[in-house]
Design brief:
The structure is a single chain. It contains twelve helices and six strands. Helix 7 packs across helix 9 and helix 10 runs antiparallel to helix 11. The two termini are about 35 Å apart. The longest helix is centred in the N-terminal third of the chain and has 24 residues. Helix content is about 55%, strand content about 15%.
């Protein structure tokens, strides 16, 4: 019965723990590994002294995620081409039913924000995630990281400045994002170069992530004209047998392409002021495994 209770308590907090780990690591598989390790520690520990299970589990998960982040950051230095976070299937209506909370939830898992967070140190990232995404008080974060509260406030301020300096502008209005995504799909499928250019900001970018395991640009493509011409070229040569669906990934609308029943690509648009600022394309098959049933 004690084991059953421990499992029940852990499962109650699993969504929060996975949310912390994913925002820290940007990979679904890495986040799941961290949560599993947190479970092993939780199940093996003497829980009689644990007064607040959530706080204990968040502390364990965060520290494990920091250790894992330090390991994976070294591997990313040799990554082939641009690196993007792994797309995460979400349903922000369920995760955050309140409209204001839904907006915060959606913003906290966007590919754009996770990319910017890559510039943070592991400790800065932990403080930013716990404070900005989950609203933990500084005193609690200090206990999680075994740091003084003034030190945590300093880390939070530095992390916030880095994020604000690099944070792309984007709209979180789901209907506006869906509308632009549908128009984007129609223009690309119709090889409408002028239509695509009209949807993109002048300084629009396309960031492709293949990890060297699929076809995707190894450098960021910049300007509306070059991005549009690249997309038209892909449409003319590489869409045979492809099926498309609009799904919610990372709190926003995305295009999920399947070929032969398997996920082939994810395209998500960073939208601001009525224009597409960035086109994110994830084609690394390792990062699409979790979307097989989406």
């Amino acid at each position: 019965m004690l084991t059953d209770h421990a499992t029940e308590v852990f499962e109650d907090h699993r969504p929060v723990l996975h949310g912390v780990a994913y925002r820290m690591l940007g990979r679904v598989a890495d986040a799941e590994d961290v949560v599993q390790e947190a479970w092993l520690r939780w199940s093996a520990t003497d829980r009689s002294d644990v007064r607040e299970p959530r706080a204990y589990l968040v502390r364990v998960t965060t520290r494990l995620a920091i250790d894992r982040l330090r390991q994976v950051q070294a591997r990313r230095e040799s990554y082939v081409g641009p690196w993007l976070p792994e797309p995460l299937a979400t349903d922000s209506r369920v995760a955050a039913p309140d409209t204001a909370e839904r907006a915060v939830f959606a913003e906290s898992v966007t590919l754009a924000l996770l990319v910017v967070m890559e510039s943070l140190s592991p400790l800065e990232r932990a403080v930013f995630v716990l404070r900005e995404a989950f609203g933990h008080p500084y005193a609690e974060i200090a206990a999680v990281l075994d740091r003084s509260e003034p030190a945590v406030r300093q880390l939070a301020g530095r992390a916030r400045r880095h994020v604000e300096d690099g944070r792309p502008r984007f709209d979180v209005d789901p209907q506006r994002q869906r509308d632009l995504t549908e128009r984007f799909m129609a223009a690309a499928a119709g090889e409408d170069l002028a239509g695509l250019v009209g949807l993109l900001a002048e300084d629009a970018r396309l960031v492709g992530d293949s990890g060297g395991k699929a076809k995707a640009p190894l450098r960021i493509i910049e300007t509306a004209d070059k991005v549009s011409r690249f997309l038209i070229g892909v449409t003319r040569t590489g869409l045979a047998g492809m099926e498309y669906a609009l799904v919610e990934l990372n709190g926003g609308i995305a295009i999920l392409a399947h070929r032969g029943g398997r996920p082939d690509s994810v395209i998500q648009l960073d939208v601001a002021e009525g224009r597409i600022q960035t086109v994110y394309v994830v084609r690394n098959p390792d990062k699409l495994v979790s979307l097989t049933r989406t």
